[in-house]
Every structure is written in structure tokens, then in C-alpha cells.
Hints:
Elements: H1 19-22, H2 30-36, H3 46-52, E1 62-67, E2 70-81, E3 84-94, E4 100-107
Antiparallel strand pairs: 1-2, 2-3, 3-4
Amino acid sequence: MPQHPNCHCKRLFIDAPVPSETGGATCDIRKFTEYLFSEKYSDNGKIRMFRMLGFDINGEYKLGLLNEYGQRISIEIDLTKNGRNIRLITGWMVRPKGLITCTTPLGG
């Protein structure tokens, strides 16, 4: 400390981390729209890999319940391992200002 110029950061010590209580994750949509699926960076092979898995920038989803908490959507993900195809249905919530959060990685 300090960790950068004009630093006003404070350390927060967590005695016993519990991921379900202290953890969290977000992903800026631009990681997909402006990087992963951008032709500008297509030489790194990531766009090719995701397209081989059946993903594209315009994913398919099904609308679910809309209420005061947001709009629920389901996104199907097809995976192949050892020649076996598996389809997962993931549950997501579209919240105000475009934030999308995963509510269940395996639903339906």
C-alpha cells in the first residue's frame, strides 16, 4: 500500500472466505462483442474455437418470466466430450441497464 498513484484504496481483510458470500463475478459484454467475436482479433483463434462450438455473437435464447426482478431467459449450450453430445440449459436474468447475470448454470 499504496498500490497506485493517488491511491485511496483500503484493504479489506476477510477472516474466513466463503465464496457463496464473499465471491462474485461479472463479465463486461464488450469482452464478447468487441474482443472474442471481433474480426479484428480473429488471428488468435478464439473466434474460430467458439464458432466451432456453435456459438456466435447473436446467441439464441428463450424468454421466461418478466417481473420486478428482471427478465428471465434460458440459453441452451451444446457441449461435446469424448464423442458424446450434451445439451445444458442455463438460466439468466436480464437486469436494468443491460446487466445479465447467471441465476443457474444448469436449469430446466
